[in-house]
Amino acid sequence: MLYNSLVGRVTYAEEQPVEWVNPIRTMRVTMDQLFGMPAHFYLGHPTIDVQHEVLFALYHEVRHALQEADDSFEVADVFLGLNLYVATHLQFEEEAMFATGYPDALSHRMGHQDLREGIHTLYEEFLNASSLEESRTVAARIAVFLYEWLENHIAKVDRVLCRYLLDHAFEG
Ligand SMILES: [Fe+2]
Predict the structure, then answer these.
(1) What is the pTM (predicted TM-score) of this model?
(2) For labelling, which of 7, 34, 72, 86 has a CA lying 20 to 30 Å from the CA of 53?
(3) Residue boundaries of the structural domains of the chain
(4) In the prediction, which pLDDT does 137 show?
């Protein structure tokens, strides 16, 4: 039962497998993808670690959408979730920096701005794409952009912030 729920399905006796229903409507990730954040991205701050897990889940969503071979290409839905969640997460970190007087807040916030603007620009390109092929090309760039940003920002810049927040007993 535990294993089944971790791989995204709950199986009852004499019933067909039931798809796991994700609380974020635009996401179709399985539980193993949701918890699929590589170990070196865990920073020890419980709230921020969970938020980063969701960002990774959205990254998996983009990749999943790219693997869909039919016309039901749903990156637009993923984008909605990505835009909303990126805004929520970055706001959380920025409020935490403000609340604790984090000394490197300005440059950290500039890093956040890169993500906001990068996602926004790619979203515009996605909306203006004139073919499915072009949409897929933009989606592939989104996946690369998002992963590179996560790799650079979380594993390096957020690591310093989380240490500071833990030292200042900020849990959020
Ligand atoms: Fe950050």
Answers:
(1) 0.74
(2) 72
(3) 25-167
(4) 87
